[in-house]
Amino acid sequence: MSSASRAAHANSTAPDIFDAIIIGAGICGMYQLYRLRELGLAVRVFEAGSGVGGTWYWNRYPGARFDSESYTYGYSFSASLAEQWDWSEHFSAQPETLRYLEFAAQQFDLLKDIQFNARVAQAHYDKQAKQWIVTTHSGVQARAHYLITAVGVLSAPYTPSISGRDEFQGESWHTAHGPHRAIDLSDKRVGVIGAGATAVQLITEVAKNVGQLTVFQRTANFCIPLNNRPINTHEQTTLKASYGVMFERCRQTFGAFLHDFDPRSAFDVSDQEREIIYERLWNEPGFGFWLGNFHDIVSDPRANETIAEFVRKKIRQRVNDPVVAERLTPRDHCFGTKRVPLESGYYEAYNRPNVELVDLKSTPIEQITATGIKTVERQYPCDIIIFATGFDAVTGALTRMDIRGEEGIALKDKWADGPRTYLGLQIAGFPNLFTVVGAHNAANFCNVPRCGEQNVEWVSDCIRYMGEHQLTRITATVDAEEAWRAHCEDVVSHTLFGATDSWFMGANIPGKKRMFLGYGGGLPRYREKCDAVAAAGYQGFILE
Ligand code: NAP
After folding, report:
1. Residue nearest atom 23 in ligand 1 by C-alpha distance
2. Does the Cβ of 154 fall within 6 Å of ligand 1?
3. Which run of H or of E encompasses 134?
4. Which of 30, 274, 363, 440 would bridge with 377, disulfide CB 3.0–4.6 Å?
C-alpha cells in the first residue's frame, strides 16, 4: 500500500489526502493507527476530545473506574508496554486508565498523527475519486481511501428531554460531560437521575461527601460487588509473569474476561449446593457472579430466578429501611439481561441520613424547575443535577454524523429500521468503510480492548490483503449483510435479552428501533466467523 497519496496534495487549498482516516482516538482508534502505520499507510486520526482515551477521557465523574480486571484491559500486542505499566488496583480508577492510554500514545509515538478538538460532522463517499471526504465541525476537510470508525459503543450521551431542563439555574451535566476538575460537594444538594452502571459508581462515591443526595430511579438494577483491592508487589510480579496466559484465557472466554460460564445448568446441583456456589461467586472479584455462573441463567427464566432471588436477598440484608430496600429490588426483568452494575458499597449508601431514593415509577418527574426537580409528589431542591442517563449506544455515535455511502445514501436512513452490517465491520453501500466495534459485533458485549484488538487486526489484515492484491475497493454484499443480521437475531433469540428494555436492545432511546445491537455468540465464535470469511478470500464482500 502506497503512502504516495500525500504527493497528490499539490494544491494547498485542496484537502489533505491520506491512505486512511480513523475517527476516534480511544483504545481501539489508537491501536488501529498503530497497525496501519505498521503497514506503511499515511493515516490521520480525528478526535473530538483534546486528548486520547475515548471513554476514559470523557467519563470523569466521581467514582468512575474499571469493571474489567485492569490487567485484562490493557493492550496485549506489546509485551514491552505490559512490562512497563504497573496497575495499582485490580479494578483501576478512571484517572489511572487515562494515564495508561496517554502513556501508550507516547510509547508508540501516536500523537503526531492525531488531530484533536476535531469532531467529525460529515463523511461522504466520492464515487469518482474512490475516496472518503471527511469534514469536521470546524470545517477541516481531508480525504482518504479508507475510513475507519473507532467511535466506541457508549460515546453518544443521552440526556432525556425533561420539561424545564433548560430552566435550571444550578450546575447540570451528563456523566460523560462532567467537569474536568475535582468538585467539592460537601455543602451541595445533588440530584442524580439514573440507576445504571454509571449512576451506581457515581452515587456510591458522591454519597461519601455530599450535603444532600437525592437519587431519581426509574428502574432498579441487580448490582453485584466489585470486590476491588490494591495490587501488592508480589501480585504485580505474578501478574506480569502471567500476561501471556491471561490474554490467551481472554481469547477463549465468551466475553473476553477472565470469567466464563459454568457448563452446568443451575439445576444440575442441589438447592443447597447452588446457594454455596452463588455465595462463593458473590465474593469473587469482577463479573464472575454474572459471566462465571451457570450457563442457563441467561437462557432459562427458571434458572435466572434462582440467581435473581439470591441478589434480592442480598439487597434486603444490606439496606436498613425495608421500604428503600424494596424500591432498590428489581422485579421487572431477569438478572443479567441488562448490563450488571458492579458496586463497592452502593446499597449501604442508602443507609446514610443524607441520601434519599425517589421511585420514579410511582412518582414520575413532572419537570425540572429553576431550583431543582419536581415530581408529581413534591419539589426536591438541587444545587447540581447529574444526568446518569446513559447513551444512544452502539449506533448513536455513527448516526449522529452525516455519513453517506456511494449513492449518497445516509447511514441514519439506512439504519432507520435498525442497523445492518456484515460482521459488525462493514456496511453494504459504504465501500472501504470499516466500523471497528460496530453494530452486531461481538465487541459490544465484551471486554472492549480484547474484542477491539480482534477487530483492528482483522481490518488491518484485510487492508494489507487489498494492497497485496492490487485491490482498491471492498464492500459487503446486501446478501451477506442480511444473512449476518438474521444470524445475530437467531443467536439472541435463544437468550432472555430480548424481553428486557436496555441499551443492549436500543430500548433506552425513545423512538429507536428495538433490536439487539451486539453479537450474542461470544468472542471465540465471532472470531471464528471473521477468520473463515477472510480465509475464503473475503467471502460476502465484493473486492475490486
Ligand atoms: P444506562 O445503563 O443506560 O442507565 C441509564 C439510567 O438512566 C437508567 O437507570 C435509566 O432508567 C435512567 N434514565 C434514562 N432516561 C431516564 C428518564 N427519562 N427518566 C429517568 N431515568 C432515566 O447508562 P449508564 O449507567 O451510563 O451505563 C451505560 C453503560 O456504560 C453500562 O451499561 C456499561 O456498559 C458502561 N459503563 C461501564 C463502566 C465500567 O466498565 N467501569 C462504568 C459505567 C458504565 P431505566 O433503566 O428505567 O431506563
Report:
1. 390
2. yes
3. strand 131-136
4. 363
Distance CA 169, CA 167 (A): 6
Query: Over the stretch 301-322, which tens digit does the pLDDT of each residue have?
Result: 999 999 999 999 999 999 999 9
What's the pLDDT score for residue 473?
97
Number of C-alpha atoms within 13 angstroms, CB side, residue 242?
A: 12
Kind plus residue range of the DSSP H or E element containing 243:
helix 243-252
Give the strand pairing for 141-149 and 212-217.
unpaired
The pLDDT tens digits of the residues spanning 456-515 come to 999 999 999 999 999 999 999 999 999 999 999 999 999 999 999 999 999 999 999 999
What is the sign of the dihedral through the CA atoms of 91, 93, 99 and 105? positive
Cβ(70) – ligand 1 distance below 6 Å: no
- 144 C-alpha to ligand 1 centroid (Å): 36
- Does ligand 1 lie within 6 Å of residue 194's CB atom? yes
Tell me, what's the pLDDT at 445? 86
Residue type for 465, please?
Answer: Y
User: In the structure grid, which three cell numbers stand for residue 4, read together?
Assistant: 504516495
| Helix or strand holding residue 57 (H, E) | helix 55-58
| End-to-end CA separation in angstroms for the chain | 15
| Best probe residue, ligand 1, of 158, 445, 508, 514 (max atoms within 8 Å of C-beta) | 508
- The sign of the CA dihedral 386, 389, 391, 392 is negative
Joined together, the cell numbers standing for residue 337 give 439481561
pLDDT digits (tens, 9 = 90+) for 82-124: 999 999 999 999 999 999 999 999 999 999 999 999 999 999 9
Distance between CA atoms of 541 and 423, rounded to whole angstroms? Answer: 11
Task: Tell me the one-letter amino acid at 369.
Answer: T
Which residue's alpha carbon is nearest to atom 31 within ligand 1? 197
Contact between 139 and 374 (Cβ < 8 Å): no
Cβ-based neighbours of 238, under 8 Å, separated by 6 or more:
none
